[in-house]
Amino acid sequence: MLQTPTVHFEAASTLAVVVSSIEPLLFLSDDLKVIAASASFCRAFDIDPASVSGKRLSELGAGEWAMPTLESLLGATASGSANIEAYEIDLKRPGQKTRQLVLNARTLDDGDMDHIRLLLAIADVTDARAEARIKDDLIRDRAVLLQEVQHRVANSLQIIASVLMQSARRVQSEEARGHLRDAHHRVMSIAALQQQLSTSLEGKVELRTYFTQLSRSLGASMIADPDRLSIKVKVDDSVVDGNVSVSLGLIVTELVINALKHAFPDERKGIIVIDYRSSGNDWTLSIADNGIGMPIGNDAPNAGLGTGIVEALVKNLNGEIELSDAGPGAVVTISHREAANLENDLSSAV
């Protein structure tokens, strides 16, 4: 770009930087006349480079830069009473779409102490803003779709649970009836789990609330006499990702169902405690009861569906499972240790 004859000699380096900049830049005098413009500015806004030097900002192009508020801010910046930082404007040009611009301006000390000069940087964020709007729309549409899916899943689970219970009432075999009731309990627990997760924000789940609601659902569907049996939740302030909470919730569901079915025969009173503690990436989940304890040896029950589900979920979480005597009762402890998993990974690599 051409420079005006009145430019101070020591401003030459600034002019060179402005002219060669790949970003749209304007070098302005304190009365907002253009001293120089970068070639990128002229290309971006369809302005003839030969027509720029010496013109006022408001005279550029077809007058689209004539913005009283912008001129006022630039004047205040030149006087030192204001700064233009990330100031947004809409540039409207005849026959073209409106461009969204972000402006930054500051005064320059180019050696001429008698004249204040401004450097105005322009960033065109039109396309970036359009992409952001599209992304926001997609996220919003996805949220609406997810909500609809969750609603349909909840309804389907309720229908399945109802069918299972009706089937349990009709069958003659006590064994078959027991299996159908077990299936009903599992479906109702999954329904409670799904309802809780659907309210979680940004894929994060606060476990104390989550396990509390899950235990209430289990109690409502499986405990006929709350004075005889109860479920207690002892959980710290841990928050986990949604996918982790799904696995933890299924583990809790299976172990609590197992305790309710086997730990308190003959109308025995008791309590089941769900406990979860974490420290950094390490955590421990335990399900304890004060029932009759876990039979061992020949009296131990065969591993069923619930056991297989728990073992698979624990493996998926890179955890370890341990069964111990609680005197009275039994405790199932699932633990995850980051250091232990790292050692195992290193051993496998070797």
From TrEMBL:
GO molecular function: ATP binding; protein histidine kinase activity
Record's keyword terms, sorted: ATP-binding, Kinase, Nucleotide-binding, Phosphoprotein, Transferase
Catalytic activity: ATP + protein L-histidine = ADP + protein N-phospho-L-histidine
EC number: 2.7.13.3
PROSITE patterns to which the protein is assigned, alphabetical: HIS_KIN
A matching Pfam family: HATPase_c
ATP-binding is among the record's keywords: yes
Domain Histidine kinase: 148-340
UniProt xrefs under PANTHER family: ETHYLENE RESPONSE SENSOR PROTEIN (PTHR41523:SF8), TWO-COMPONENT SYSTEM SENSOR PROTEIN (PTHR41523)
Protein name as annotated: histidine kinase
Species: Rhizobium pisi
